Amino acid sequence: MKQSSDRADAHRSAVLARIGARGPMSRADLARELAVSPALVTQTTKRLLADGLLVELQTTPSTGGRPARLLGLATTSGAAVGVKVVAGHVTVIEAGIDGTVLRSVTDPFDATAPTAVGELVEILRRFVATSRHDPLLGIGVGIPGSVDAQATGTVDSTQLGWQHVPLGDILRRELAMPVLVENNVNALTMAERLFGQARGHDDVLVVTIGTGVGAGIVSDGVVLRGATGSVGEFGHLPVVPDGPVCQCGAHGCLEALVGEHAIVRDAVRRGLLEQDGTITDLQALADDGDEGARDLFATAGALLGRALAGAVNLLDPEIVVVLGEGVTAWPYWAAGFEPALRSAVIPRKRGIVVAVETWQDDRWAQGAASLVLSTPFDAQGRSGEQGRLVRERMNVSSRTEQAEVAR
């Protein structure tokens, strides 16, 4: 029953996102564009109309049958803030109710500083103050680490050097807004489910490569969290006994072999880069035809492909979506990735689709904003009291817009 409700939530979110992006649409057009049955669209839009999130508009001209009624958003003024937090910078976006990114800023950020959380508060305070939406529905925050629950938002992150940081409570108190906090890859997976290449699939594996390696898992339409909110720690899959030390303290983790720092470390060791070289420098060498640089990326790709084959065999996804900062060098990763993956998955899964998505940094923050935008359909109650406050703000926004139209 719970998973059925989650699938319905995703369908409702997809309907809102599509109408928000394309404008008023008929039920038949929605069914065609979302690749679902007309009966499902009718059921989904009936609930959205009852909830006051959609309204029926004028009819479209008939070509012989009954004229089709167009459906539109009850409010277009709602917006949410999404925040991507990493060790060296913070990206903040404002997203419309359909998930469209309206504006984006990136500020330098030192997560290890004693004043890091206070600095994050000030970054968000400045951003919120320049919004044209009143009220904003809420703030979603994506964190590279474990989060106890979206509604409370206590964070443990080895990448940020944070232990038991009550981030959600602090942001709510300082900004006087609903705040939802989630593992960044889980939040990104939600955005992919609603707006990206995972839309329309109920079983998906989202893999991110870059500074770290992560995974988000959609099973039967549900974005999984695990017992402690840390499902999908793909980068900490043990690969090589007594291998390089990982930031988690273990040895030989996948991330310690194919993460950005690991690849740069190996490039320095081979003499391809100076000590202050970067992954961008290494890619430039590969672009110029340097075989050593290309071999490093291909080796990382082979390790990733073999590890991912195990995940595919275990989870049986319909599609794998690969994205993250690392995909800018994907042609060089692919040389090792494809043969390693296809040879290691069991025969009936060798045709698994791997969609590599062109990287946009603000997609992480869009995922965080999705935490807020999806709360009207939170059948699981993951958003708790914060979700209730978001829904109240959405209702205020809708009533305000309707009053302005009436005037």
From TrEMBL:
Pfam families: MarR (PF01047), ROK (PF00480)
Residues covered by the HTH marR-type domain: 14-54
Source domain of life: Bacteria
SUPFAM superfamilies, per the entry: Actin-like ATPase domain (SSF53067), Winged helix' DNA-binding domain (SSF46785)
InterPro entries from the UniProt entry: ATPase_NBD, HTH_MarR-typ, ROK, ROK_cs, WH-like_DNA-bd_sf, WH_DNA-bd_sf
Family of the protein in this entry: Belongs to the ROK (NagC/XylR) family.
Name of the protein in its database record: ROK family transcriptional regulator
Species of origin: Isoptericola sediminis
